Amino acid sequence: MLSKRIIPCLDVKDGRTVKGVHFEQLRDVGDAVDLGRHYALQGADELVYLDISASQEGRSTFTRLVERVADAIHIPLTVGGGISSLDDAARLLDAGADKVSINSAALARPELIDEIASRYGSQFVVVAIDARHEPLADGDEEAEAHWTVCTHGGTRPTSHELFSWAHEAEQRGAGEILFTSMNHDGTRNGYPVSTYRRLTSLLHIPVIASGGAGNADNVAEVLQQGQADAALVAGILHDGITTIPELKTELHNRGICVRIL
After folding, report:
1. Active site members
2. Which of 4, 189, 217, 253 is deepest in the core (most CB within 10 A)?
3. What are the tens digits of pLDDT across the range 101-134?
4. Which H or E run contains 156?
5. How many domains does the chain have?
6. Cα–Cα distance between 66 and 72 in angstroms, integer?
7. Which residues of 12-34 are buried (b: 16+ CB within 10 A; e: fewer)?
8. Does 259 fall in a domain?
9. Biggest CA pair distance of the chain
């Protein structure tokens, strides 16, 4: 049985780790390299760094940061944010990233998925999907309701729908899907479990759950009932609500296969 993964996510702006609610109200939560090293030593299975800087100068700062993080840790490192070309992906992989995460640029030009997968292999490509839940009618099951895919940090709705876009991304060569529910991001009220269950049953590649972790119950639920392969966690770690060893011990006690140091 494959172990379920616990993956801390660090949103980075100008070299610092930040956290918000619904991608807004950002606050500083610490040094990006120090936090990454800390989580790796605690037993994180992987790390995800997402660059939310808007300027080209910010992109250069992020590339240098990736080099420093790669030197400091010895677990898989996924990086994303502002990747819009094969050259962008190459720059970050050369800096030490193990995988790249692409989002808005893949929606604008889906061939980017094919290009990166063809050059480096599917295992290097994570397609991140930010989507907002829009109920069709009172009483509709969450998984059956419409999920609108958004771009640019969740600020711009598109014509794409979650399940069809995830399927296309897989067909084009994505090795993993990282799905964030914008309705749940930063709320600590749990993940949309029925949606993950539908998504994982549709795809043949790993699905990473993101947005809504408030405690071990939430994480256990999305890994067991939602059948997600991994859970992305951020605020509950950054704010000291729990630690990776505590979280993994609780998951292990519930019969979930996790790697424990």
Report:
1. 11, 130
2. 4
3. 999 999 999 999 999 999 999 999 999 999 998 7
4. strand 156-161
5. 1
6. 10
7. bbbbbbbbbeebeeeeebeebbe
8. no
9. 51
